[in-house]
Amino acid sequence: LYKKIREDYNIQHSQVHFLNITDLNWDPTGQTTPVEFYNSYGSLIISNLGFKGDIIQWTGTKLTTDEKVSATSNDLILLNVLTILHPKLATFVKERYKHKIVNDKRLIDFK
What pTM does this model have? Predict the structure, then answer.
């Protein structure tokens, strides 16, 4: 889907855009809700996934399939957003939910 949208709107796929993640800031007094910030952060990650045929320079390999966001990546995205929203929020969530994250439960399940 993203590939088709990029083709239709002539949007260039470039890893330099991944660095735009450093520009994302959340202002609690602003118009952006925590959920909207999470969605923006996640969208930036997803829009920089690799495509089949992309060359991974540091390993010298070529992607054989399009990259997909894994469950672990989703957990990491949420953890990063929690930390950006407030430096102590991830620790708070850990203390409140660590006993619930068992078996087939993941952090993202409590989003």
Answer: 0.79
